[in-house]
Specification:
single chain; alpha+beta; Immunoglobulin-like; 2 domains; 4-stranded antiparallel sheet; 3-stranded antiparallel sheet; 13 strands; 20% helix; rod-shaped
């Protein structure tokens, strides 16, 4: 029978050599690996200033992108002044994101951030305490995108102007019509009924008393139409 013995005396040397090789490989790997670079932050600032301070207020906007917040803010203020704004103030600064600045007819100034221009614009308008004349004045993204905010829905058409009110009362020798404007617009009007026409001026929101004398009662209903050049008219009936 043959018995084989391993030479145990060589084990420590082999183990030490293996450890040294492993350590050397680790050091080489650490030296050869370049440190991971981090992208620098980009800041975008927006500023707003007054063009007209009386309601409905008109605002000017300014924007700037920079590697520091202070430079972005200063650039936005300068751009706002160059665009005709006075008393310009910085309203928002975004870091690697999009921003929007909004205002209303009363000069309220707000700014907001978002993942897109559309989101930032929506957030900014929602922050306004009064939505009368709410609009985005300036917007943009830190990556330089200047995609405009989504178009606001068109304003509803103005309500049609109301025609004048008319009431009557009998007077000695005829009849008197009391005509009151409801349109808020001064106009030239015509009073017309069977075989009778009369023109008169009707001031805005005022009353005009039209006296029809002499007039003989016919004891029947008369159809009267008041037509004004501001686009309004009223047709009524009176018994006389």
């Amino acid at each position: 029978m043959t018995t084989t013995y391993q030479n145990r005396a060589c084990w420590p040397g082999q183990t030490i050599a293996a450890i040294l090789l492993t350590v050397a490989a680790t050091v080489v790997g650490m030296v050869g690996a370049a440190p991971q670079a981090h992208a620098a932050n980009q800041y975008i600032a927006l500023a707003l200033g007054y063009i007209n301070e009386n309601p409905p207020v008109t605002m000017a906007g300014g924007s700037a992108i920079s590697g520091t917040q202070d430079q972005a803010a200063q650039g936005a203020l300068t751009n706002c002044v160059n665009n005709g704004g006075s008393h310009c103030v910085s309203v928002v600064i975004g870091t690697n994101e999009c921003v929007a600045a909004a205002s209303n007819d009363y000069g309220e100034e707000v700014g907001a951030t978002g993942a897109s221009v559309a989101a930032a614009s929506s957030n900014a308008k929602a922050k306004l305490q009064n939505q009368t004349g709410a609009k985005v004045v300036v917007s943009g993204c830190a990556n330089g995108s200047t995609t405009p905010p989504p178009n606001d829905p068109p304003p509803p058409p103005p309500a049609p102007k109301l025609g004048p009110t008319v009431s009557f009362n009998n007077i000695i020798g005829g009849i008197e019509a009391h005509i009151t404007d409801r349109s808020g617009v001064s106009s030239q009007c015509t009073y017309a009924t069977d075989n009778y026409n009369r023109s008169f001026a009707l001031p805005a929101n005022a009353k005009y008393d039209l006296r029809i004398v002499p007039a003989v009662p016919r004891f029947r209903n008369w159809t009267v139409t008041i037509t004004c050049d501001n686009g309004t008219s009223t047709t009524v009936s009176t018994y006389f």
